Amino acid sequence: MTEEVLGYLDHNILDSIRKGDPFDIRGLLDKNQITPIYSKENLKEIKRSVGSENEFLSILKELGAKYIEPIYENNLPTGKAQINDSDAFFVWSWFIENEEPMPEYGYGLSSMLEKFYGGRRDETYAEIFSKGDAELKKIMDDAIEELDSNEYFTDEMKEAINALPEMLAVQHQYISEKMDILEQSPVKEFENATGLGAKVLKNINPPQVVQKVFEAVQNSMIGVELDIDIFFAVKYQPFEANSDRKKTLSEKVNGLYHQLNFLGYYRDSDMKNTRGFVRSSSDMTHAGIASFCHLLLCRDEGLVKKAAAAYEYAGVRTQILHFQANKALKRN
Hints:
- The protein is of the alpha/beta class.
- The protein has two domains: 1-100 and 195-332, no CATH class; 102-182.
- The chain contains 15 helices and seven strands.
- Helix 13 (249-263) packs across helix 15.
C-alpha cells in the first residue's frame, strides 16, 4: 500500500471552495490522490465564521478530509501527529464540547503582543498584565477547587499553585515599568532604531531568506552579538525552562514565522486590531501544523512567504502550493 499524500488545507482554501472553487481544488485533490487535512485551527476559524459553519463542515465531509492532531507527552509536543478519519461533523461536536476558549487577555501574553504592534492604545502594559494575572488566578482557583477532594493533592501543591500568579505579577510589574515609558510601540521603536521594517524586508528574496533577514538585523545593531537560532526561537534561551530540550520542527516553524512577521517580512495587516492579531496567530499555527504534511495549500501570499522561509531554514520538506487570483498555480 502506497503512502498517502497529505495536503493541509489553509482556511482560505476552504473558503475558496465554498465560494465556487475557482481554482478547482476538488479536482486537484482527486486527480492527484491527495488526502485533504485539517486541524483544530481550522475548526477555530470555522467557529469564527458565524453562520457558515455547516457549509465548511459539509465541504470537509465531501472531500473526505482527515483531522490531524499533534501528539503531546507531559504537556510538551513530541514532534509527531496522529490522523483521525472520523466524520467532520463528529470532530466538530467533539471540538465544541471540549474547547477551552482563551480568555480576553490571554493571561497577559496575547494582549501584550497586540500592544507590541501598536494595539490596545487605551491600556498600559501594567493594566494589561493586571487583567491577565486576574485571568490566571481565576483558572488556578478553579483548578484548586476541582482538585481539593483528591487525596493526592497535597498542601504543598496547593501552595505552589497559589504562588504562581503572585510570582508572575512581580515579573510583569518589572516588564511594565520598562515598557510603559516607551513613546511608541516596540515594533515602531525597533524599526526606527534599525532602519528596517516591512518596506525594506519585502525586498529580500529567496533563497536563505532567514539568513538574509538576520544579516540585515545584525548589520543594523553594531556591537550586539546575536545567535541566529536563539533570535528566531529555533533554540531556547539558556535561562529558559527545558533549555536542553530540542524543539520540534513545528515549534521551530512557529518561532521563525512569528519573528519574521514581527520584523516586517510580509507582515500581516491590521496587527493593531484584535481580529487581525488573531488571524495572524492562526496563520502561524497553520504553517506549523502543515509541517507534518507533504503539501500546504494556501492563497495568502504573506503566509506563503513566511512559511516558505521558515521551512527552508528549519529543513521542513513540506511543499507549498500557492493559488493566486488570475495567475497559474505556483509551487514554492
